[in-house]
Design a protein that fits this description.
Keywords: ATP-binding, Ligase, Nucleotide-binding, Purine biosynthesis. The protein has 3 domains: 85 residues, Rossmann fold (3-Layer(aba) Sandwich), CATH 3.40.50; 60 residues, 2-Layer Sandwich (Dna Ligase, domain 1); 196 residues, D-amino Acid Aminotransferase, Chain A, domain 1 (2-Layer Sandwich), CATH 3.30.470.20. The protein has 12 helices and 18 strands. The radius of gyration is 21 Å and the shape is globular. A hairpin with a 5-residue loop joins strand 10 and strand 11. The strands form 3 sheets. Strands 10, 11, 12, 13, 14, 15, 16, 17 and 18 form a 9-stranded antiparallel sheet that branches. With 380 residues, it is α+β, with helices and mostly antiparallel strands. Bound molecules: adenosine-5'-triphosphate and magnesium ion (MG) (2 copies). Adenosine-5'-triphosphate binds next to strand 7, strand 10 and strand 15. One magnesium ion (MG) binds next to strand 15.
């Protein structure tokens, strides 16, 4: 029986482990947190730091292949493991995704348009920034997620203040673009360079956090979807990527497609695939990692995913409560996924709800009902 390793014990690791187990693999999770969502379902949980030598040695000795479930795993750990066992995605690819400066350079090199941007490394750089980038969004080059590590700035004075506030770490300033909508594409690439894409997903963010994903993307033309898929493939090919890669895009007011960022792993916006596709993104990651055949996944029905953040676990008075799961589960086509996190916190990803039905209209109607039941804002 082959054994797979995962660096990181969050919900993405948990769902990867569950998919791998369905295909008969043993799974080992490395995460410093003794109480992690993936560690709880894995065959073995190695509770240690990602750079712990003994832990890495143990992993490389027990695992036939190793992957990561979060992009901020130290690239050094991946490198060290790769000397002894098969690792995908490679440290070189994860490094690009960890650093917005390298990431944007890779987009440009791949011939895919991104937002006009400048790199800021020291306070003096604030004066060098072209006027055209303001108003803009200042983002730390590393470690940001869910809109953390970002500041919207209207002018140079605000830019200087934001750069100081973010700690004068390396940043990119992006022009604030007029977004019509956001979408993302999951591409999987095999060891021998074959690529397959999932259907394009349309995403809605609230407060910088993904809230809703809808497939098929209701407001994206077939031509634009094809362009997004081709761009995602070019980005994956260009770095010799192996595994599932998620590429986020903006569609601007004038209809232009602009790449935003990417994640070297299955992605929150791809959770719809768990109930609506014949191969989901986690199984695809297992296939790519282990050299099993990749095949274009088939969308079996329209689907809407609602993210379940910790906010739902609190009432208006701030008292903890349990959301009405029985009510939600009574809705036709609703499939609930909870990550087994003991403690709810506002903004914390606790689970997601996939809703599918025979038509996009019926899916929306069911999703509206679910949103009402849970106390989520109504879908537009
Ligand atoms: P994630 O959790 O997706 O990794 P993140 O913290 O890395 O998030 P981004 O994806 O860079 O952040 O940005 C978060 C959101 O902010 C985007 O989904 C988009 O809604 C908005 N945004 C980011 N960059 C721009 C831009 N240049 N112009 C307009 N809106 C933007
Ligand atoms: Mg990001
Ligand atoms: Mg993002």
């Amino acid at each position: 029986q082959a054994t797979l390793g995962v660096l990181g014990g969050g919900q993405l690791g948990r769902m990867f482990v569950q998919a791998a187990q369905s295909l008969g693999y043993r799974c080992v999770v490395l995460d410093p947190d003794a109480d992690s969502p993936a560690g709880a379902v894995a065959h073995q949980h190695v509770c240690a730091d990602y750079l712990d030598d003994a832990a890495l040695q143990q992993l490389s000795q027990t695992c036939d292949a190793i992957t990561t479930e979060f992009e901020n795993v130290p690239a050094k750990a991946l490198q060290q493991l790769a000397a002894h066992t098969w690792v995908a995605p490679a440290a070189s690819c994860v490094s690009i995704c960890q650093d917005r400066v390298a990431e944007k350079a890779h987009f440009v090199a791949s011939g895919v348009a991104c937002a006009p941007y400048a790199v800021l490394r020291q306070p003096n750089d604030v004066q060098q920034v072209p006027d055209a980038l303001l108003p803009g969004i200042l983002k730390t080059a590393r470690m940001g997620y869910d809109g953390k590590g970002q500041r919207r700035v209207r002018d140079r004075a605000e830019l200087a203040a934001a750069f100081a506030e973010l700690g004068q770490v390396d940043c990119v300033l992006e022009q604030l673009l007029p977004l019509q909508l956001e979408l993302s594409v999951l591409v999987a690439r095999s060891r021998n360079g074959q690529t397959v894409c999932f259907p394009v997903q349309q995403n809605l963010h609230r407060d910088g956090i993904l809230a809703v994903t809808e497939v098929p993307a209701p407001q994206v033309s077939a031509a634009l979807q094809a362009q997004a898929r081709e761009s995602a493939v070019a980005i994956a090919q260009g770095m010799g990527y192996v595994g599932v890669l998620c590429v986020e895009f903006f569609v601007l007011g004038d209809g232009a497609l602009v790449v935003n960022e990417m994640a070297p792993r299955p992605h929150n916006s791809g959770h719809y695939s768990m109930d609506a596709c014949d191969i989901d993104q986690f199984e695809m990651q297992v296939r790519a990692l282990t050299g099993l055949p990749l095949r274009e996944p088939r969308l079996q029905s329209p689907v809407l995913m609602l993210n379940l953040l910790g906010d739902l676990w609190f009432d208006a008075q701030g008292q903890e409560r349990t959301p009405d799961w029985a009510g939600v589960l009574a809705l036709p086509g609703a499939q609930l996924h909870l990550y087994g996190k003991a403690q709810a916190r506002p903004g914390r990803k606790m689970g997601h709800l996939n809703i599918s039905a025979a038509s996009a209209e019926a899916t929306r109607a069911s999703a509206q009902a679910a949103a009402r039941l849970l106390g989520l804002p109504p879908l537009e």
